[in-house]
Amino acid sequence: MPGQLGELFVNDDPDTVWRQASELVSRSNPAYDFTLVRGIFDDVMRLFRGQYPGYGPIKTPYHNLFHTLDVFLCAARLMHGMQLGGAGLSDREIALVLAATLLHDVGYAQLNDGNETGTGAQYTPVHVTRGIEFMRAYMARHKLPQDFANDLAPVISCSDPRLSISRINFPGARIRLAGQIVGTADLVGQMADRNYLEKLVYLFQEFQEAQMGGYKSVHDMMRKTKEFYASIQKKLDEDFGGLYHQLTLHFKDTLGQERNFYMESIRSNMDYLSRVTSLSETEYLSQLRRGGIIKQFQSNNGK
């Protein structure tokens, strides 16, 4: 994807991501009040950087700041596409979606009290529930409405990969829709990243620290990721209602091309992953060259 298309999934600058997301929301509602969402955005940026009171920086190598920015912008693009398709959201629902994408991984944060160890990846099995606890304390501290926090909790829960949407108690159909948007953005936003395959080595490190997944090696995890993609596609289509299709409307409006660049990038990643994992374990990492990620991984692991 040359030029502008090649930059679609490079979300490493918070200011740029905020500008792009807020412009999309303003297209739907020029009078939208960003006060609440902007406050959460700034605080989450501080939390990741270790500037939020009482907390150290979030150190998980895969679920990092850039992952959250990917998901945040994907959600804004998805809502824009839905609005173009006649399924727009209310101001409150937009706030719920954007707040949830910002807060969905704060459960990896660790207190800055000298007692925490590791990167925070040890909390992987419970990071969503920890994030909801953080959210409720945050809302209470800032004297934000309790009913907003109550609706936000199930929306954030849709980012839990181990939780079926049928097990989440939604107050109503519109809150469920907000959750489906967040769940879609979490999966699509990360898997469309052009460095997604390289970043799987970081995800492997997190699973090792959390003592979960049962992967024998990075190669084993990558091979099973290809197999696992079928279940991801099913979740996107069934649990999350196929909302990702609405991204085509977003790109038609903004780029003049009736294509879903997110899904095209994901399919490209999966096709390349199939080729890579067909190689021997001594060969496959040499085929993953983007971002210098593999070289850094091998250097850190003495390879």
Can you describe what's shown?
With 303 residues, the protein is mainly alpha-helical. The chain has helices spanning 3-6, 14-28, 35-49, 65-84, 91-103, 127-141, 146-157, 173-191, 196-210, 218-239, 247-255, 261-277, 293-300. It has one domain (3-300): Catalytic domain of cyclic nucleotide phosphodiesterase 4b2b. 61% of the residues lie in helices and 0% in strands. The model has no long low-confidence stretch (mean pLDDT 93).
> What would CATH call the architecture?
Orthogonal Bundle
Give the count of helical stretches.
Answer: 13
Number of domains: 1
- Report how far apart the termini are: 32 Å
Please indicate the percent range of residues in DSSP E strands (runs of 2 or more).
Answer: under 5%
The SSE order reads: HHHHHHHHHHHHH
CATH class placement? Mainly Alpha
Shape descriptor: globular
How many strands appear in the DSSP assignment? 0
Can you give the mean pLDDT?
93
Outline the low-pLDDT stretches. none
Task: Tell me roughly what share of residues is in helical segments.
Answer: 55-70%
CATH topology: Catalytic domain of cyclic nucleotide phosphodiesterase 4b2b
Classification by helices and strands: mainly alpha
Largest sheet: number of strands, sense, barrel closure = none
**What is the rounded Rg?**
19 Å
